[in-house]
């Protein structure tokens, strides 16, 4: 195993959202082992033995030219650094996973017949639904562009199967303005996305959230194998930093467009209503 200690990245450390929340060490430890790169907080800080990577561009180039084929990152590094590494790995086409003990101890093989069967069912179902909802998707894209100029889609880092980081695709439900304003929108959306008085959410966006139509683009995540139609809750990157051991074990299966717990609750409610009638 090869270990190096490097300074973190000044650009990300100065992010508006994380200035008051991220108090982690200004260094991180890199460990190479069998083609995997583990990024974690240093225990005993030594003199850095690797040249500083001060920009995301240099990190991307480093990952592209390395023999690393998978990155595992310690959630203790904080949300800002996780997003930086996730973005760099995405550009370098390297998969990145959260290093969670409860997940690592219960890894399930992704090449088993049952796993491929579930994936095949999800792919077929998504491909069947996609042509049906394409007119709805195109109509919503047009409405969003007319109602609030800007990209009709938004992307946010979530935690997938075995802790893999991926970007969930959704319809944008908030206003789109300058870069500074977008940072405020992201911060507000992450904390109060279900609030009825969300001042950044458009009227159209509120209606889409209430009806669940903002989740329709996630069919592309299902086709790519990152999600399933029905499964455990899909945690955001911020939520993943505070997961309990029991919640971490749920990550061993792909998250769903429809939350399995909500589906069960609705089915139980329907049973109660039928009994009352």
Could you give a quick summary of the protein structure above?
This protein is of the alpha/beta class.
What key phrases describe this protein's structure?
277 residues; two-stranded antiparallel ribbon; Transcription Regulator spoIIAA; alpha/beta
Total E-strand runs = 9
Query: What portion of residues is helical?
Result: 40-55%
Neighbour order of strands in the largest sheet: 1-2-3-4-5
Largest sheet: 5 strands, mixed
Radius of gyration: 20 Å
Q: What is the distance, rounded to the nearest whole angstrom, between the alpha carbons of the first and last residues?
A: 66 Å
The secondary-structure class comes to: alpha/beta
**Poorly predicted spans:** 8-21, 47-51, 178-185, 188-197, 265-277
How many structural domains can be distinguished in the coordinates? 2
Give the DSSP E fraction (strand runs of 2 or more residues).
15-25%
**Number of helices in the DSSP assignment:** 11
Shape: globular
Q: Could you give the order of the helices and strands?
A: EHEEHEHEHHEEHHHEHHEH
Q: How confident is the prediction overall: mean pLDDT? A: 75
């Amino acid at each position: 195993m090869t270990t190096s200690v490097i300074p973190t990245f000044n650009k990300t450390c100065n992010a508006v959202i994380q200035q008051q929340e991220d108090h982690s060490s200004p260094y991180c430890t890199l460990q190479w082992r069998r083609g995997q790169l583990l990024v974690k907080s240093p225990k005993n800080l030594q003199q850095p033995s690797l040249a500083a990577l001060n920009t995301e561009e240099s990190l991307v180039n480093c990952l592209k030219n390395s023999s690393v084929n998978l990155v595992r990152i310690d959630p203790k590094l904080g949300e800002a650094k996780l997003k930086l590494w996730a973005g760099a790995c995405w550009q370098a086409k390297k998969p990145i996973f959260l290093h969670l003990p409860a997940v690592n101890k219960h890894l399930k093989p992704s090449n088993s017949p049952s796993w491929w069967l579930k994936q095949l069912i999800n792919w077929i179902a998504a491909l069947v639904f996609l042509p049906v909802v394409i007119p709805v998707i195109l109509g919503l894209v047009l409405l969003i562009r007319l109602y609030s100029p800007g990209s009709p889609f938004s992307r946010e880092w979530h935690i997938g199967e075995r802790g893999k980081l991926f970007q969930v695709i959704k319809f944008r439900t908030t206003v789109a303005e300058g870069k500074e304003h977008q940072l405020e929108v992201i911060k507000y959306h992450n904390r109060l996305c279900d609030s009825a008085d969300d001042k950044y959410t458009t009227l159209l966006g509120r209606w889409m959230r209430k009806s669940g139509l903002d989740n329709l683009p996630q069919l592309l995540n299902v086709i790519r194998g990152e999600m399933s139609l029905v499964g455990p809750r899909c945690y955001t990157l911020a939520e993943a930093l505070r997961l309990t051991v029991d919640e971490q074990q749920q990550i061993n299966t792909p998250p769903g467009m429809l939350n399995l717990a909500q589906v069960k609750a609705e089915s139980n409610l329907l049973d109660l209503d039928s009994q009352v009638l």
